[in-house]
Amino acid sequence: MENKEAQWSIEVENLEKRYGSFIAVDKISFRVKKGEIFGLLGANGAGKTTTLRMLCGLLAPTAGIALIDGTGVSQNPESVRFKIGYMSQHFSLYEDLTIWENFRFYGGIYGMKLSEIKGKFNELSYRLNMSDQAQRLTRELPVGWKQKLAFMVASFHNPSVVFLDEPTSGVDPLVRRQFWDLIYEAVLKDTTIIITTHYLDEAMYCDRLAIMDQGKISAYGTPNEILSHYKASSMHEVFLKIAGKEDILA
Amino acid sequence: MIAFIIKEFRHLLRDPRSLLILIGMPLAQILIFGYAIKTDLNESDIAIVRMNNDKLSDLAIQHLDASKGFHVKYIWDHPSQIAEAFRKGEIRLAVVLDNNLESKILQGYPADIQVIGDASDPNTANLLVQHTQGTLRNVYREYLQKNASTPVVQVSARMLFNEENRSVFMFIPGTIVIILMLLSAMMTSISLAREKETGTLELLLVSPLRPHQIILGKVVPYMGLSLINACTILLLSKFLFEMPFRGSLPLLMSETLLFIILALCIGLYISTIARTQQVAMLLSMFALMLPTILLSGFIFPIENMPLGLQYLSALIPARWFVEIIRGIMIRGVGIEILWKETLILAGMVCIFMLLCVKNFKIRLE
After folding, report:
1. ipTM
2. Would you say residue A194 has pLDDT above 90?
């Protein structure tokens, strides 16, 4: 039992969020392995973002349990916060600070020492080929760069899980591809990635998926499992089948 | 935490223009209040109507003209021109002397002196009329002492602590209050609302920073800035406007710090309610600035307000701080007199701090 627990990075059990009579997330359960890329897919309003926010401790669940590395998010929020990184839907670096100042700040609030921040930053900027850009204001950067930086900031303190809330929305295909390269790199270092997206082609990049619809998980598994279960040739078909089923019910 | 404070300072310094405004605005305001908005009487033009060439009328005119507040522009022997002169705005006040002024008074009869003020500006008119009455009373008394044997009761008035009745004394405390309120409350509320708007606040909330650390990090830089401003104003008021400084400086500084903290807390509280920078700005403008200006007693005396407003003004932090500044600077009293006001401010700080931390926790709603 003990052994098995350690291998799950995230465990979600009957997680529920209600706003009055409206059920945003309806008793969902899923598990994510360490070093896995887990995709949460769904139409707008399907409950992806709400789920993510509950996992990060930004929203308190109405009922249910969410564990990160075996620690309860609502029971022990302070220790969970050190383990996670979060990149929100909006671009959320400080535009009036330089790239270096942003890293320095976020490293600082996660308790990293200045020398540590400097070392990691230098290595990072060398790897991303942006050593000469460190003193530029974030505001002046192209959108694609900003997104990549936001991801680097979110994973700068070596969190065990990084949550990405629609990180690639409004970004061109080339930058999206580059962005995914960064994600793959992070997973190699055993970081777990939870990503929400409504680009269906991105679903195929994930190790496993949960497709959400009206607050429930309607499909769950590896992309290929889901494709064969729905006897579909593409995620589009799966998506239409799930949405279509709802239409008939309605 | 330290990283947070450094970052806030960076925000401040990154934009030199707004920093200039933040530091320059207090200077401009204090100069405007100090020089332009004066309610002191200064050589107002007046007209005098005399219908008799007696000595007492001469004396009255001399005194009025010699007084610092008046300049006698016209001397008429008939009141018919008064209305026209008022309408044209040539004079602010007219004095009509009794046609038998001297003889009536010598015979012990009451004499009539009519004082007409231009009440389209009621405050000034009131002051001018009072000033005239005072001057004429002096003339009358002086004359009687010389020419009659009747002993006269002499009332001598002194304006304690502000003998020259200078309005600067009233405006400086008020200006300090407004500037501190504006800077501290408005700036913090806007800066936190900005983080909300750009989504960076979410990142802060996801991070291990605790709510009170976020709040402190936000508050400290603005506290520094406000303190600098408070010092500039105090220096200016002392050396430029010769504002007296009778009380203890450490006490004044600590009270100022208390008020700044309070204003910052209010600003934070506003930003926990407001969703965007604009809302935060409007809220601090209307919910804070106007009551501060109108109800703090710095322009309109609290005792003159209707009872309801008087109670309302007790809720305005600025009211208590104005009392404190006046107490320390002008009357030179210490904490043994001002403990009540200090306690009230401290209480307000506690309330708003609790509200802020509580509202911040509601992120887990």
Report:
1. 0.80
2. yes
